[in-house]
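Summary for the steering committee. The consortium agreed at its last meeting that each partner would contribute one worked example illustrating the joint modelling workflow. Our contribution is presented below. We chose a case with several input lines so that the handling of multiple components could be demonstrated. No manual editing was applied between input and output; the record is shown as generated.
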Amino acid sequence: SAVISQKPSRDICQRGTSLTIQCQVDSQVTMMFWYRQQPGQSLTLIATANQGSEATYESGFVIDKFPISRPNLTFSTLTVSNMSPEDSSIYLCSVLISGANEQYFGPGTRLTVT
Amino acid sequence: EDKVVQSPLSLVVHEGDTVTLNCSYEVTNFRSLLWYKQEKKAPTFLFMLTSSGIEKKSGRLSSILDKKELFSILNITATQTGDSAVYLCAVLTGTASKLTFGTGTRLQVTL
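What follows is the complete predicted structure of the assembly.
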């Protein structure tokens, strides 16, 4: 497995502002992902964070709204831009262990937009 | 479009009961099926299943996969209040390693 940390663990933000969430892994991993979990819902994949290139976004998610960086194999950031109350969710990063078929999740960031 | 369906959506049992949670899927490029337990924010990994008919066990929890009928079950025996959580089933697919989640089963164990 891997030890994954996320910062911040929670935040309350005003609409129209942006928040950057950081994800750090204790070992180099090939694949990192960002998920969103809206209240009462299951997890939805936002994008795959690719090291050294642009992230791969899922249908319904765009780079302007959720820019992602992945400068190396242990770190990634997700920015939630121009926030509205509909962005209130838990945001989770996950990693795929190389050669395995399992993903592990970070502790999550609970975002509330007022 | 890949689809994962869990049942029941929620369940209330008494401590000591045995529960069975169900997960069915329709996906392309299946790689594995995973079960997670979510109590607060982060899903914690329980099991990864890739082969049919091989039971995975961890204490009171066990799981099995049927790749012909496209489903999996998660069993919890002698339930405890600490088992109260949302149990998520997810399927990993393709070279892109995408995880598609079911809606989850909310389990409440009462005294």
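The interface with chain A takes residues 31-32, 34, 36, 40-45, 48, 50, 88, 90, 92, 96-104 of chain B (CB under 8 Å). The first strand of chain B starts at residue 3 and ends at 7.
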